[in-house]
Design goal:
The complex is a heterodimer.
Chain A lengths: L2 E3 L3 E5 L4 E8 L3 E9 L6 E6 L3 E5 L2 E6 L4 E6 L8 E11 L2 E6 L3 E6 L1
Chain B lengths: L3 E4 L2 E4 L5 E7 L5 E7 L6 E8 L2 E4 L7 E2 L9 E3 L8 E9 L2 E4 L3 E5 L1
Parallel strand pairs in B: 2-11
Antiparallel strand pairs in B: 1-3, 3-8, 4-5, 4-9, 5-6, 7-8, 9-10, 9-11
The chains are: A mainly beta, B mainly beta.
Amino acid sequence: GQSLEQPSEVTAVEGAIVQINCTYQTSGFYGLSWYQQHDGGAPTFLSYNALDGLEETGRFSSFLSRSDSYGYLLLQELQMKDSASYFCAVGILTGGGNKLTFGTGTQLKVEL
Amino acid sequence: EADIYQTPRYLVIGTGKKITLECSQTMGHDKMYWYQQDPGMELHLIHYSYGVNSTEKGDLSSESTVSRIRTEHFPLTLESARPSHTSQYLCASASGLEAFFGQGTRLTVV
């Protein structure tokens, strides 16, 4: 089987830094990606890691440790507009191709 | 700007009707996906495809079916809609680990 776990909710203040963790258990793993979804909207891609280490994209960074089956999304200089749900997703190689399976999502609330 | 389109955006339909949700992308991606998502909940993978004439069932069992006759087109069909099918259906195409989503179809079966 497979599992992906994220915290259900995180709260932080504007201007702060927040880290959203993702732990996974699956065979056929080939990478981890992150998505943002505002209420009523579609998910939008933020970042991905196919190799261990840190990837930086503006205010957002993502980290992967394959040996620990763990990754995180780091959001810096938080803004009110960052209030949204954040999902990690694992790329999984299957006999029939490859699929992208999403985690349970983390609701981020940014406060003044 | 991602070019992936879903129609219709909203659909209210009676029980027992057959429906097809359309999804098209102009990015030439081989990989396409269908997800089902209830409000405030996670995305469940129900079907995926890695190219023309290749489709696979996803992680969540679904009574829907899909086809992939052309690279750009990945429609989802429900032969007989039921109230339990009420949900949002999201289509995506991907290049590697980067997926692009359509705006979704909100389906209500009454």
